[in-house]
Amino acid sequence: MSWIVRESGFDPERIAHHGNKFMIGNGVLGYRGTLEEFGKSELTATIVAGLYDKVGDKWREPVNAPNGLATAVFWDGAPLSVLKAVDPADAGARGKAGEGDARGDASPELVAHEQALDLRRAVHRRRSVFRTADGAEVAITSERFCSAVRPELIVSRIAVESSREGEFTIVTGIDGDVWDINGPHLERIESGTDAAGEVLSLTAWTQELGIPVTVAEAAEVRGGGEHQLLREDLSVRRRIQMRCRAGEPVEFVKYVAVWTGQDGAPARDVRTASAQSAREARQLGYDRLLQEHADRWERKWETSDMTVEGDEEAQLALRYSMYQLHIIAPDRSERVSIPARGLSGQVYKGAVFWDTEMFMLPFFLHTAPEVARNLMMYRVHTLDGAKRKAAEYGYDGAFYAWESQETGDDACTLFNVNDVFTGRPMRTYFRDKQVHISADVAYGIWQYYAFTGDESLLLDGGAEVAWECAKFFYSYGYFNPRKQRYEILDVTGPDEYHERVNNNAFTNRMVKECLRVALDAMEILRSRNPERYEALLAESAVSPEQIRDMHDRLYVPQPDAKDGLIEQFDRYYTLEDVSLPDLKGRMLHPHEYLGGGNGPATTTQILKQADVVLMLHLFKGDYAPSVKQANWAYYEPRTEHGSSLSACIYALVAADTGSPDWGYPYFMRTATIDLTGESKQYVGDLYIGGTHPAANGGAWMAAIQGFAGLRYDGNQAELRPALPSAWQAIEFPVCLRGGSYRIRVSRGEVVIKASGENSTAMRFSVRDQELAVAPGQEVRVPYEAAGSLDGQLGSARPSGVKH
Amino acid sequence: MSWIVRESGFDPERIAHHGNKFMIGNGVLGYRGTLEEFGKSELTATIVAGLYDKVGDKWREPVNAPNGLATAVFWDGAPLSVLKAVDPADAGARGKAGEGDARGDASPELVAHEQALDLRRAVHRRRSVFRTADGAEVAITSERFCSAVRPELIVSRIAVESSREGEFTIVTGIDGDVWDINGPHLERIESGTDAAGEVLSLTAWTQELGIPVTVAEAAEVRGGGEHQLLREDLSVRRRIQMRCRAGEPVEFVKYVAVWTGQDGAPARDVRTASAQSAREARQLGYDRLLQEHADRWERKWETSDMTVEGDEEAQLALRYSMYQLHIIAPDRSERVSIPARGLSGQVYKGAVFWDTEMFMLPFFLHTAPEVARNLMMYRVHTLDGAKRKAAEYGYDGAFYAWESQETGDDACTLFNVNDVFTGRPMRTYFRDKQVHISADVAYGIWQYYAFTGDESLLLDGGAEVAWECAKFFYSYGYFNPRKQRYEILDVTGPDEYHERVNNNAFTNRMVKECLRVALDAMEILRSRNPERYEALLAESAVSPEQIRDMHDRLYVPQPDAKDGLIEQFDRYYTLEDVSLPDLKGRMLHPHEYLGGGNGPATTTQILKQADVVLMLHLFKGDYAPSVKQANWAYYEPRTEHGSSLSACIYALVAADTGSPDWGYPYFMRTATIDLTGESKQYVGDLYIGGTHPAANGGAWMAAIQGFAGLRYDGNQAELRPALPSAWQAIEFPVCLRGGSYRIRVSRGEVVIKASGENSTAMRFSVRDQELAVAPGQEVRVPYEAAGSLDGQLGSARPSGVKH
C-alpha cells in the first residue's frame, strides 16, 4: 500500500504538477509523468543528464530529447485522449495529438482515469476508460519504466480493451517537436527506419555544440494489424489499424533507446547504437526487461528503504522522496551530478547547485556511497571551470559555479529575476557573491572521506579541489588591521534576500571549514603522493602556513554571551524587525521577488531560508543546545521558507534540540513537496516548477539525522533519537565506512544489527551510552525516551508552515 | 547693465523658479524671491541659518520663520495681486492673500510686471502695474534687502502710485502660516504689539527643541492713514486705509527683525531683542540702512568681483553666481556652514554636504578667507556628531555626516528616494557608504591652511578633525593579504548611480590625502601644542606609524599604461557600455531614479557626475595631460550630469588640458543654473528644487581656476591661462596668504598687481615663467596664447550639455 502513489481523475490544471510527480528515470534519462497522448503543450520531456545547449543569447539549459513514447489512439476515428474530454476548442490547437477529426460532442467521453507510480519497481501506470459515441467502453492502460539496468532504454506497454468489438487506430512513434524553454535546441531533424523497416529512428543535433541525439523505437504489437509509416518534418510514426474483440485486450510495446554523442561519438555510431539497443530490447521482451529492472530496484531499496511505524503518510512521503533521489542518481557516471530540479525539465538551467552537497549527499553517503563518490568526482572534473570563474573575477583558486553544467563554467547569469513592475531583468548576486559554494564543495569532499574512509577521492583530485577552494578564499578574504582578524566581505549567504552582506555567519564558518579541509586533505596527499603535493604548492602563490593563519584568525560570528543569538551577518539586527505576515501584506504583486535591489525583504530581518540555523545543523557538535534553541526561536518566525531547502533544516534542528514535534510539520512540508505540488512556482515572472531533489534529500535527513538522530563523524556513530509523537519506530539500513547496519529506533530502545559481512566492529553511542557492534552482532540499547524536552523552543511557533 | 538680473511679465509656472532666482540673504537669513502678496502656496520662505526642526518621524529640516513681509494692497477693495490676474478660481483657494472679495472680471488687470535683482547692492526690486475696474493705472513698486550689516534685519519699502485719485488699503504684518515640507515646525504662536502699539511681533516655538522664534515688524507710512490691528490665530497684521492723489506715490517701509533662541536665549529675551531691533531700524530709517548695506556689499565685491571682457552673458552669470554665494556665506558664525540649497528653502533638509569643501570653499579661500575659516570651523564644531556616526557603525574616529545640520549628526536617512513604480522608499547608500565625506573635510582643512598659512584652524581643532578622519579610514579600510595592500571597499563615490563599489579611484585617492593631511597636521600640532598631541595619541588605538603604513600601501587605481584610463572602481569596465541616449530611452517614467537598487544606470557605465575626472581636477599636478584628456574623453560621454556638481568639473579639466572651448558649454551650464532654472527638479517623487551654491562655486572655479588657470598650492601661485574664444580678458582680485592681488589675464599677457599693503612678495609662474611680485608692484608677463591645443579631447563631444 505505501509503495504506490496514485491520483484518480483528470484535471488539466494538474498536468504540469503530475508531470513532476509521476516522473520516472534512471539517472541518465528522466521522463516526465505525462500521458501518451500529450505533446509539448503538456510539458512532455525526455531529459538527458549532462546534455546542454544554448540558443542565441538565451541561457544554456538541458536538451529535451525527441519523445519516443508519443502515442495517440483512435476509436473509430475519434481520439481516445483525456485532453479531448476537456475542451474541444483547445484540442485543435494542441495539434500533434493525431490525425483524427475533433468531433466535438461526438468525442469519446472520459469516464475513469488514474495515474500511479509503483515506487518499489519504479514503474509508471496509467488507466483511462472512455465511453465512445457508439456506447462502447474502451480502456487504455499503460505501464512504463526507464530501465535501471540499461540506461539508454525506456520501455512502455500499452493495452486497449473495449466492451464492444470495433476498430481502432494507434499512431505511435517519435515526436521531435518538443517542449523547450529557451529552444529549439535540436536542429536538422532526420528520421527513418532500419533496413527491415522495423526500427524507427529520429536524429537531431544540438545547436551550440552539434551533438547528435538519436531516439530509436522498436515496437511489438500483439494482435497484428495493418501498418503504415508516417514521416513528417519533425516526427516519424507508425499508423496501425486493428480490430479488437469485446473484452480481448490488444497490446503493443515500445522499446525506446536514447543515445547521444556526448562522449564524442559521431552521429553514425549514435544512430547505429540506438537502433541496436531498441532491437535488442525487443528481442529480450517486456517481461525480462521489467524483471531485471525490478531486481535492480529491489537492491536499491535494500540499502535505503526505511519503515516508519505509526505514520503511513510520512512512510509514503519518505519512500517517495527516496524514489525521486534514486531515479536521478548518477550511479554510472562521475561526469554528471544532480541538478536542482533533477531530470524533471529545463528549469534552473538543469544546473547543479550547492543543493547536491548540502541536501542530497547525506542520503547517498549513508545508502549508496558509490553515488556519493560520483557526485563529488563531478566537482573534480569541473575544477577547471571553477578556476576559470575565479580568474574571471580576479581571484586565485577555484570559485565553483553557482549553477554548474557539464564543464563547470557558471551558467548563472547576473540577472536572474525580472522585476514584475517594470519587466526589466533585475541584477542579483547569486553568481558573483554566493561564494560559500566553494566551501560547500570542499565540505562535501571531506564528508565523503570521513564517511567512507576512502582516500581515493582525495588522491584523485579531491585534495586539489579543496586546496584550490582554500586559495580562492585566501584571495577573496581581507584582513581587518584594526581587529586583527580575517573577514569575508560582500557575500550572499543562503538567505538570498540579503545580498552583499559582510561576515555572514554561515559563510564564514564554511570558509573556516574549507580551509581546514584543504590543510588536512593536503596532508593526506603529501603522505600518499608527495610529487603531486609539491607540484600543487609549486604553482601556488599561497602557502599552507598562510592558509593556516587565515583559518586561525578568521572571524566567525559567535553566540551572544547573554542570549545565545548569532547575528546572521554584520548589522543584521539593525534591519527592520517586521513580522512575516506584515511583510507579505506589503507585497504589491503575487509573484513579486522579495529580494534583489529593492525587494521588500531586503531592508528587513525576514530571511528566505535557514541560514544561521543551517550552520547550527552542519556544525551541531560545536554549539550548545541552548544556542540552537535560541536561534531557532529567533530565526524561524523571521523565515519565509521561500526555498524548498529551508523547512527540513528547521525540522533537523528542532529534533536536535529535543523538540521533534516542533520539527514535524517542517519535515512533512519537505517530504510532501513533490506529492502535493505546493511549492513556489514563480519568482518574479520566472517559472521555477519541477521536482525538488534537495527537499527529497532533506526529508531523508530530517527522518534519519533528525528524528532517528544518527550522526557519524567518520569515527563513532551516534544516535540521539527524538521521534515525533506519532512515530512508534523507524527502521533503516545504513552504510558506514563500508559496513552495513540495520538500525531500529523505537520509543525507549535502539536496535543495531551489523551485517555479517562487515569487516570490523563499529563504535556506537546511544544517548551517551557507548558500545561496539561487531560484524553479525545485534545490539539492543534501551534509552530514556525523549519528548519531555518538547516545547523548549519557547515562544516560537511553526508559523507559515503548511502540512 | 551686467549688475542687474531682470524678468519681465508674470508667469505662474515660474513662481518657484523666481523664488530661487531672486533670493536675498545675508548668511543668517535667506528670503526667497517671492512677491509681497504671496503666501505658503507660492513657497514664500524666510530661512534662518542653522535652525532645524523635526516633526514626528519625518526628517529634520530648516525652519521657515513667519513671513514679516506679507503685504496685500487693495484698490477700492479689489486686490492688486499678480495672482488675481491669473486665475480667479485659484485665488480663492490661496486664501491668505487678503480680505478683499475675489471680484472675478472686476479684479484689477495686470498690465506690466517686472522683478529684478541689483547684484551690486543685493537689493530686490519689483514693479507691477494694474489697471483697475474704474480705469486707473496703479503701480506697486517695492525694494527689499537683507541687511549685510544687521544680520537679523530685512527691510522693505513699498510704494503705491495711481494715475487717478483713489482709496487704497494695505494689509501688512507677519504671517505665521508658512510653507513647510515636513512641518508645521512652529507651534504655540503668540502675537502682539509693543506697549506703544508700534511694533508688531509674532513668536512661536519649534516643535522638537522648543526654540523660540520671534519676528518683529516696525512700519513707517509716509502719507498717514487710518490704522487698524488685525490679530488672527496665525498672523498679526495692520490694515491701513489711505487716499492717494493722482501721480503722488504713497510709501510705506517695513523693518522686520528675526530673532531666535538658537543660542539658548529665553523667549522673553528673543522677543525683546527683536522688537528693539525693529524699532532701532525704523529710527535709523530706510536710506541709512540701505547705504550701510550697500557699502558693505561694495567691500564684498572689491575682493571678489571679476570682469570678463567679450562675454556679457558669462559676466552676468559669474556675478550672479558670486552673489548667490555671498548672500549665504556665514561671515559671522563658525557654527553654520552652507547647505546644498543655500538658504533657499527646506530642500535637502537644509543640510551641508561635501559640496561646501569641494565646490564652495575655493571661492571663499581666494576672496574671503575668514568665511573659509568659518566653514571649516563648522566641521570642528560638529566633530562629535561625526564621532557618534562612526561609533554607530562600529568604526573609530570621525565619519562625517553625509547631510550635516547643526550638531553634525547625520540627517541623511537610509531611504532617500521613492520608487516611482511602487511608491516605496528605496534603500540608498548615501549615508553609510559615501565615506569620502570625511576625506573631503580633511582636504578642506588642509586647503585652508595651505592657502592662508594660518595654523590657527589646525590648532583650534582642525588637526584633531583630520586625525579622527584618518582613524576612521584606518578602521574602515582592509588589508588585502594576497595583494599586500590596503583597500577601501564597499563605498559610494561621487557617482551615486553605482553604490557599494570597491576601490573607487576618487575615494581611495581622497583617503590617501586624508591620511597625509592627518600626519602632517598632527606634526604641526605636536610642534605647537605637544600636550594636545600627546592627549590625542593617548586616546587613540591607532598610531601615526599605522596611519603612515596605510598611506604608503593604500591602493589607488592608476592610469592604464597603454591608454591612460583610470577605472572608476573595481570591475567598472565589465558593466554594460550603453550610450546615454540609449539609457534614457529605457526610462519608463520621467522622474525615474537612475540609481538605487534596480535603477537603469546601475548595471551600465553611465555615471551620474564627474568622478575620476573630479580626482584629476583635485590632484591635477599628479597626472599627465594625456591622462586627463583620455579620461575626459572616455568619461564625459558616459556622464549623465545628473548633479549640478558635474559640469563645472568637466569645464575645469577641459581648460586644464588646453581645450577651453570644449569646457565652455559646461561652464555656462553651471554658471546659469539658477538663472535659467534648468536643473533637475525631481528625483523619484522627491522635489529637489532650490538654489545651487555648489554650481555657483563651480562657475567661479571654472572661470578662475580653469580659464584664468590660477593654481596655488600654498607656496607658489601659477597661471596657466586658457581663455575661451569669446573672452578677450578676465580680471579678478585674489587673496593669497593674506596678500591681495589683482590679476588680469588677456590673450597673450598676464598682469599681476600686488597690493601695497602686502607684507611680502609672492612667487608666480605664468606658463612656466617664474617671477616674484613685491608689494605694490605691477608685473606684465607676455605668454604664448593657447587655443591651438583645442580639440585634443579627441572624439568626445560635449554631449547632452545645454547652453
From TrEMBL, chains A, B:
MF annotations from Gene Ontology: hydrolase activity
Coiled coil: none
Residue intervals of the Glycoside hydrolase family 65 C-terminal domain: 710-772
Ranges where the Glycoside hydrolase family 65 N-terminal domain occurs: 7-260
One Pfam family per UniProt: Glyco_hydro_65C
Record's keyword terms, sorted: Glycosyltransferase, Hydrolase, Transferase
Domain Glycoside hydrolase family 65 central catalytic: residue ranges: 319-701
Keyword Cell inner membrane carried by entry: no
UniProt-listed PANTHER family: GLYCOSYL HYDROLASE-RELATED, PROTEIN-GLUCOSYLGALACTOSYLHYDROXYLYSINE GLUCOSIDASE
Similarity remark: Belongs to the glycosyl hydrolase 65 family.
Protein name: Glycoside hydrolase family 65 protein
